Amino acid sequence: MSQAPLCDDGGGGARTIACFAYPKEEKFRDKNPHFIAAAFFVAEVPDLKTEQSCLQKSPNWMVTGTRTATINGVHFGVFEIGDNWTSGGQWGPIYRIFHGKCYELGLQTAMARGGYDDDAMKKINKQDMQDVDTKLKQALQSFEFVK
């Protein structure tokens, strides 16, 4: 793969605990840009030992926005990260929280733009991406700490 791994935070020092990937479906086969993958992950960031350090962005991230979010009553700092390269891109939010340790929840999507004639290929549309996002957000919205 030429892009960063989808099951971690792209250089933020996370150690993945769980990762759920969206399956590469037949409906994406002839579309450009090409759907590479999408995933939801849960990770621990062992080097960030305080709440203050945990709720800061990684210096390795290209942050396009920040916000807060609440999932099942728990408040997270959210960093929208993304990266583009000559033939593709990867993006998605990283949710951070300090819960005795620094944890991250992330949604990452990667696409490739091949050397094909865009007019000759079907384009991935908003509905296609909404289907991917909806399924991955189900995992995100179901997350909760058990202790």
What do these coordinates show?
This protein has 147 residues and is mainly beta. Helices cover 14% and strands 41% of the residues. Strands 1-2-6-5-4-3 form a six-stranded antiparallel beta sheet, with helices on one face. The longest helix has 17 residues.
Query: What's the gyration radius in Å?
Result: 16 Å
Write down how many β-strands occur, each being a DSSP E stretch of 2 or more residues: 6
Order of helices and strands: EEHEEEEH
Q: Based on helices, strands and strand pairing, what is the structural class? A: mainly beta
Question: How far is the N terminus from the C terminus?
Answer: 36 Å
Low-confidence stretches: none
Question: How are strands sequenced across the largest beta sheet?
Answer: 1-2-6-5-4-3
| Envelope shape | globular
The average pLDDT is: 86
Strand content: 35-45%
- Please give the largest β-sheet: 6 strands, antiparallel
The helical percent reads 10-25%
Give the count of helical stretches.
2
